[in-house]
Amino acid sequence: MENIKFKELGLNENVLKSIDEMGFEEPSKIQEKVIPVLLEGHDVIGQAQTGTGKTLAFGAPVISNIPKGNHIKCLVLAPTRELAIQVNDELARIAKHSKTRILPVYGGQPIDRQIKAVKRGVDIIVGTPGRVLDLINKKVIDLSKLNFLILDEADEMLNMGFIDDIESILKGANKERQTLLFSATMPAEIKKLAKRYMKPESQHISIVKNTITGSTVSQFYFEVKNKDRFETLCRVIDVDEPTAAIIFCKTKRGVDELVESMQSRGYSVEGMHGDMTQNHRMNTLRKFKEGSLEFLIATDVAARGIDVENVSHVINYDLPQDTESYVHRIGRTGRANREGIAYTLVTAREYMTLKQIERTTKGKIKRKEIPTIDDIFYAKYKNICERVQETLNGEDYKKFVPMVTELDEEYNLIEVSAALMSMIYSKEVSFDYTKNSIGSSKSKQVRLFLSVGKIDRVNPKTILSLLNQANVYKEDVGEIDLFDKFSFVDVSERVLTSIMDKCNGKRVNGRRVRIEVAKGR
């Protein structure tokens, strides 16, 4: 099926209305394949990476088919508090026009509050295995009438040691339920789990990995706060001065809003998305190809088939819906063996998804600091000097010599040159920058020494699981460096006290861990 639309998949009108408001034009590969199968009532094993649009793939059909009644209809299990919150938020957006009640439950929050919320009545519970099992054991959660059970990132849950909790939950759930298991990899344990707890006729849907090999595109990311996203974009283009750039937004509304913001600041820009007529899109593309437009802002669907050789930059203003879209996006630059640049703006919450894209595509996405005003000033200065040099190499400037001679009698020519440069600078910098630099959303980092290493069978997931005892989010964790007998990990300064209180002295794989602030790299 090519260019299929959400409305062709069999979803109900309320869900379709929500998807339309979310701004998605077409389903991703996993959504296109999973939604019809789930709507038909089959169990599904979905093999797909993070960032492929999995939540919408299971959320849309579940919310479309959710039955009436006061029982819990759907349970979604996620490996971490962070992912549970993320899935809950996405499901809430899908259920905006339905009367579906959704509740996240996870450790680190008062269980009494969650017990009261469950007792008030809930249709979908999104939770971590440990907290869900706690609530089952307290007779608060009853899964005897459950209609849907979803395991999200099943391999992560197994790696974090949740297998026993998951099996306890699966055993106690309604045997007639529909089960969906998502996993990036398919180790033997996952296959056993599927065979034991899913119907024999369950369908295995796999989304093939995309890789970037021999690419002429240099990939970078900027970590931003949401409120600084637009200013960061302006700073990046003011420093790089792209000859032609395609800027990608996730939604149609995002395209319209960004076009308006950039046009109001004098940038040469137009947008393309699915709601625009074919004629409008063709005219916009023609102007972009001819060079009368510097910036083209587009959704993934609208940009399909764009073949413009002189695109110097691709900028992901929003992270794409899936890895495949990322590969397609950055493929718009670096054409015909030319060098291209791809930039992605991410918040701390989106960082792990970006790293997953990096692993899946086997491409290297390097961090870059957001340009300062000093950087912009220096870039413009160099550009003006180059243009002055080019003009001096010609003859046209000589007709202005008599006028400049007059100016020389009244003013200092150095000050005149500075005034002219100031006029050019003011014209070419459209954003009213007030601060020299805008920081990323990461707080100051501290490097910790841990007295366990590779010989203790420690890996990054083991360390994240240890830190999770201090309710540390993934975005609070930076680089993890593993050595044979010890490890180093960078963490946000704000979680240091909690880690030292709750993790120091705990056992990992039978070995007690000593944690200290490292003296230096």
TrEMBL record:
Residue span(s) of domain Helicase ATP-binding: 35-204
Catalytic activity as recorded in UniProt: ATP + H2O = ADP + phosphate + H(+)
CDD domains: DEADc (cd00268), RRM_DbpA (cd12252), SF2_C_DEAD (cd18787)
InterPro entries reported in the protein's UniProt record: DbpA/CsdA_RNA-bd_dom, DEAD/DEAH_box_helicase_dom, DEAD/DEAH_RhlB, DEAD_box_RNA_helicases, DeaD_dimer, Helicase_ATP-bd, Helicase_C-like, Nucleotide-bd_a/b_plait_sf
Domain (Helicase C-terminal) ranges: 216-378
Limits of the DEAD-box RNA helicase Q domain: 4-32
Motif (Q motif) on chain: 4-32
GO BP terms, alphabetized: response to cold
EC number: 3.6.4.13
GO cellular component: cytosol; ribosome
GO MF annotation: an example: RNA strand annealing activity
Record keywords: ATP-binding, Cytoplasm, Helicase, Hydrolase, Nucleotide-binding, Stress response
PANTHER family: DEAD-BOX ATP-DEPENDENT RNA HELICASE 47, MITOCHONDRIAL, DEAD-BOX ATP-DEPENDENT RNA HELICASE CSHA
Similarity-based family: Belongs to the DEAD box helicase family.
Name of this chain's protein: ATP-dependent RNA helicase CshA
